[in-house]
Amino acid sequence: MQTLTLRCTLKPTPEQAAALEATARRFAEGCNHALRVAKEHGEFRRFKLHRLVYRDLRAMGLSANLAVQAIARVGRKKGSRARFYQPTSCAFDQRTLSLRGEDETVSLSTVRGRLRIPLKLGNYQRGLLARARGVQGGVLTQGPRGKWYINLVLRIETPTPPGGGGTIVGLDMGQKTLAMLSSGVRFSGGPLKGVRLRYLKKRAEVRSRLDRPSQRTRGVKRLWERLTRREARFVSHALHALAKRIVDGLEPGDTLAVEDLTHLRGRTARRGSTERHLHHLWPYAKLRSLLGYKAALRGVRVVAVDPRHTSQGCPRCGHTARENRRSQALFRCTACGFQHNAGWVAAYNVALRARGCSPVPQGIVARRAGSTGEGRCKPARILRVSSVHRLLSESPNQNALAFG
């Protein structure tokens, strides 16, 4: 069982939209009042703050549940770091929000009574709502163009992965190659990198205007926020699409092995302002999070392994040395002469570590590569164990044969 957030578009009438706006405004006023009291008393613990401001929020016109949600927002979000709450969202729980699937409407408790508002759903939303075991609540939000959305918190039952017989697929993440699978499938990171660099250049121009008091206008500030949100939406969409393609290529019962890149930025460094910028902003953790929940919905296991020297170890003889990594894309073992794409070597070593053994185990995806040098990805196929061991034992001059 896991909890997911599903965003749905609301289609309120003008009267309902006015009620939603009034509710969001009143909710923000309650949050700001709770924030002022919390700062005055130096008390951000939820239950202590509840005793201080609950009656005030009720007197302001908030219902009991909305008052509790306002107090929880100030305490849970660590209101000591907040300055002001904008009237653009409102939190609901199970008592103030209910869903009716027959006519695709949602019932919300507002300052003007209970309202039933139609939802605009697509096939993706309908599929998740059909699988949901329950609705835990939601957050009402207003977009920059005045549209209203409801982010429903759903409890989804995940299937239990079938035991035995699954395939282990290794995944190597990077910047030039966003994702490389041990099956030979490669996802380029060039488009994402190019977009992030373009936004970096645009924000640098806007930043130079913000640093000058004479040009620090409200329009320039809005432009800065708009560029930031636009880049965040693009990155989020790209990662969702990538994670979906990776998971859809697996079968229930398979295992996806990923690198444990926790605290990566504290252990590594990059030269140059551009490389440091990309290194600190590259979304490894977000991609892993998306892979985790999408794989769970499909019945695929996700395991994390130690990432050290995965692109420097030879999958044929086991020799590990920095000299094996001849370039960003080329791996050539200095001991046995094995040569292949460095990203694929890293992905295959990740799959081996997930299995916990050095020889090639059954169920690891393998392939033949038809080129030397950097190696171009071809359609993956599964080789038998005997075939893979034969490739491992071949002489070093037969580098055109590789497994993946």
TrEMBL record:
Question: Which UniProt keywords are present, listed alphabetically?
Answer: DNA recombination, DNA-binding, Transposition
Q: Which GO terms describe its biological process?
A: DNA recombination; transposition
Outline the extent of the Cas12f1-like TNB domain.
284-350
Highest taxon above the source species: Bacteria
- Which molecular-function annotation in GO is an example for this chain? DNA binding
Pfam families associated with the record: Cas12f1-like_TNB, OrfB_IS605
List, for all copies, the residue spans of the domain called Probable transposase IS891/IS1136/IS1341. Answer: 154-261
Alphabetical list of PANTHER family matching this protein: TRANSPOSASE, TRANSPOSASE, PROBABLY IS605-TNPB FAMILY
The record's similarity note reads:
In the C-terminal section; belongs to the transposase 35 family. In the N-terminal section; belongs to the transposase 2 family.
Full protein name: Transposase, IS605 OrfB family
